[in-house]
Design goal:
This protein has a domain at 72-144: 2-Layer Sandwich (Nucleotidyltransferase, domain 5). Helices cover 38% and strands 18% of the residues. It is built from 4 helices and 5 strands; from the N terminus they run H-H-E-E-E-H-E-H-E.
Length: 150
């Protein structure tokens, strides 16, 4: 009897043991992957507008009409400052630049436009001194001239 019970118990255990065996699952669970991708997408959508840098430009209208007043140029060279207005160039100094520019522009306008160009050998500090002097004198609309070499 003991032997038959042992066989019956082993047999019964064998039937039950097959039911609870864990088999290997070959399917990939993509739910965590999708969750991570959605979170990254939301983070990118929120941070992308913050990464743009806006620079306010005061562009002239594109109506095709030339300005009635010829441009006034301030040229910064190794040999000094030159003021060109109406085709005539004359030398000036940093202290006399606002007064000479006022005479060159003639009638005071609400927003005079001044163009600045500089030699490549001019020190940056010297160029910025001219720009700062013009801003201090009330000339807000300053254009920088870049010319191609060649």
């Amino acid at each position: 009897m003991g032997l038959s019970m042992a066989r019956a118990g082993a047999k019964g255990a064998g039937r039950l043991a097959g039911r609870f065996d864990l088999k290997q699952n070959a399917d990939i669970n993509v739910t965590p992957f999708v969750d991570v991708m959605l979170v990254l997408l939301i983070v990118m959508m929120v941070t992308a507008p913050l990464a743009t840098v806006a620079v306010k430009l005061d562009m002239p209208p594109a109506d095709g009409h030339a300005s009635a007043n010829p441009p006034t140029f301030v040229s910064v060279t190794e040999h000094g400052l030159f003021l060109t207005s109406g085709g005539a160039a004359r030398q000036t100094s940093l202290g006399a630049l606002p007064a000479d520019l006022g005479r060159a522009l003639g009638a005071p306008s609400a927003h005079p436009r001044v163009m600045i160009r500089a030699d490549r050998h001019v020190a940056y500090g010297q160029f910025m001194a001219v720009v700062n002097d013009l801003k201090a004198a009330g000339y807000d609309r300053i254009g920088l001239i870049s010319e191609e070499v060649g």
